[in-house]
Design brief:
single chain; 359 residues; mainly beta; four-stranded antiparallel sheet; 6% helix
């Protein structure tokens, strides 16, 4: 435990990378040429024609809706699964579903228009944390068949939080990071009451945090950064990816993906290279040992089993695909191999078949 806390302390307190503070303001729905009703010809040309690159094949199986449809929300932003518990962050806060039940339950009140990210604590499916834009970071505990949430940032310190990451193998040894308009802040141990979080050298708008071999941070207008023994290090050359309006990244030491406002980029030859066939906003990326996945606006989810050379449309019947307002905001791979998607039309799941098949 001492070594784990020391490692986290090195990341949080002795980070040495220089950070570019951006003055860009991130809207929930960033500008995109596909949104302009006065450019329908442009929409047809830029938003759909490229699909010929992936239209010839489907990565089989169908998407299945998780639970019943939820009314009164604009979108789900995140999804997390732990045994029979499912949590999904929406613009109204956190919803829960415990299988085999099929009804989603809103676990918080008084939250509107909020980006919400949620994560379970390792080895404890009755404990979770959520970052809720405008409402800070909350700790959730499941007891008596309901989730109870309490805020754990003092004096509204993390009011603009939009992403959460828990780093560690157990509740006893884990540290926690929060990202938002303030950059990235952290604690070496999981809090159970309001406390003051510690700063890191990231102090500009940070969109997401992704735990893994290293912790990744996507810094708006600056790029992708990862933790190292001495602190934070840029992943890629300065100015890379070419689109630095970055949403979420994944990296395992040799393979990597990052989704951006104009598409997605693949880690090749030590830097980020644009994926030509993906030009919709890439809100979500995820990968396992077998495949890479990108969740987009309008066109849903695409995947690759050959390291990013060939991309296929993933599954059928993902509700909302093709609509200009459709967004895949999060992708989550469960330990059983099921892929979950948090979208504007609900939470969906898909089970990977052996390989893509020709139509």
């Amino acid at each position: 435990m001492v070594l784990a806390v020391l490692s986290l302390a090195l990341v949080g307190l002795f980070a040495s990378a220089s950070w570019v503070r951006g003055d860009a303001f991130l809207n929930d729905d960033p500008p995109h040429p596909c949104d302009d009703p006065q450019t329908e010809e442009t929409i047809e040309e830029t938003c759909f024609n490229y699909l010929s690159a992936v239209r010839g094949t489907d990565w089989g199986n169908k998407w299945t809706r998780v639970g019943k449809p939820v009314t009164g929300i604009e979108r789900f932003y995140s999804v997390a699964v732990c045994q029979d518990h499912l949590l999904a962050g929406s613009d109204r806060g956190v919803y829960s579903l415990t299988t085999p039940a099929t009804d989603w339950t809103l676990t918080q009140q008084g939250i509107t228009a909020a980006v919400t990210d949620v994560a379970f604590v390792p080895d404890d499916c009755d404990l979770a944390y959520a970052a809720i834009l405008g409402h800070g970071v909350m700790r959730g505990e499941f007891a008596n068949n309901t989730w109870v949430w309490e805020r754990v940032d003092k004096d509204d310190q993390l009011n603009d939080a939009r992403s959460i990451a828990i780093v560690g193998d157990s509740a006893a040894t884990a540290g926690i990071y929060a990202a938002g308009n303030f950059g990235v802040k952290w604690l070496p141990a999981l809090p159970d009451e309001p406390v003051t979080w510690e700063r890191t050298t990231i102090e500009s708008l940070t969109i997401s945090l992704t735990p893994g071999n290293t912790l990744l941070a996507t810094v708006w207008t600056s790029g992708v950064f990862q933790t190292s023994l001495g602190g934070w290090a840029r992943l890629g050359s300065p100015g890379s990816p070419a689109d630095t309006l970055v949403y979420r990244a994944a990296f395992d030491g040799s393979r990597g993906l990052v989704g951006t406002q104009s598409g997605a980029f693949l880690w090749e030859n030590g830097d980020w290279q644009r994926i030509p066939s993906i030009i919709q906003t890439g809100f979500a990326v995820v990968m396992d040992s077998q495949a890479l996945f990108v969740g987009q606006r309008i066109d849903g989810v695409v995947g690759s089993r050959d390291g990013g050379v060939t991309w296929y449309k993933v599954g059928k019947d993902l509700g909302g695909v093709g609509e200009l307002t459709f967004q895949v905001r999060d992708l989550y791979i469960h330990t059983d191999g099921t892929l979950y998607a948090a979208t504007t039309t609900g939470v969906w799941k898909w089970t990977e078949p052996q390989s893509p098949v020709d139509r």
